[in-house]
Write a structure and sequence with these properties.
Blueprint lengths: L44 H24 L3 H7 L12 E5 L8 H5 L2 E2 L2 E12 L3 E2 L3 H10 L3 E7 L6 H11 L10 E3 L8 H19 L4 E5 H7 L10 E4 L14 E10 L2 E10 L3 H7 L12
Parallel strand pairs: 1-3, 3-5, 5-6, 6-7, 7-8, 8-9
Antiparallel strand pairs: 1-10, 2-3, 3-4, 9-10
Helix pairs in contact: 5-6
Amino acid sequence: MVKETERRPRPVQRRTTKPRQKVHPAITPYNKGRFWWLNPRNWPSSVIWIVIAIVAMGYMFFFYYFFIGPSSFRWKGLYGDVKYPEGYEIHGIDISHYQGSINWEKVRNASINDEPVRFIFIKATEGTDIVDKNFDDNFRKAKENGFIRGAYHFFSPRSSGKEQAQHFLSRVHLQDGDLPPVLDIETVGELTPQQVKYEVLNWLSVVEARYGVKPIIYTYHKFKLEYLNDEIFKPYPYWIAHYYVEKVEYNGDWKFWQYTDRGDIDGIRHKVDLNIFNGSLYQLVKFTIGSTPIEDIEY
């Protein structure tokens, strides 16, 4: 038995291989040799900022080109910067109960792009049982204040065109000097394109038989092309709703253009639709029911 103090220490074993060198995290195969530039960590700070600036400008260009540019008039419209169509001098508006109580004296003296308001379309009915609550008052006061007035019906896909025409005729009594009646069609519900044409023609035929003039068709540009771009509708005057564009892109004939829904008019607190007539004042008057002679109209 060997005493504790007499034990010999174990010999120290020496390493036969060199210890593994620690690799700096920035050292990769891409910063050695010809691929060093692929690692942004090797770039000078000035280069990094230049790249960031180029990417930012590219993003802004892409966003403007595809999103802002095509809708620039819409963005302006949202902030009240209305672009007035050039080359037209006969301006008008269309109203309903959404415009609330109207100060007609101020509207009579108001202007659109330095031109007076010449005509006003007024919502009358919708479907087979709805009457705009402000129609009677608006329709009467438009006449009293010297505007060329018109009335429109908002089409509902839930009932037949004939029934809706009868509802319109029961509540609207147009006179000589008024604009032809208007059918406003914007929705089709579950109707097929053929059913849309059938019901629209029924409404137009019934109303035309009453007044002896072809009613105006109001709808937006894409709807016209998809549902009503047919020879059978060609004889009817067209009122196109096409916002935030410099000019009407529809290739056919049209009488009125609703170019914005963000207009401001003295005497009306809420935003209002602005329209132009595709012609002169004389042509507008001749377009009315009864073709009232222009010398009998006071402006």
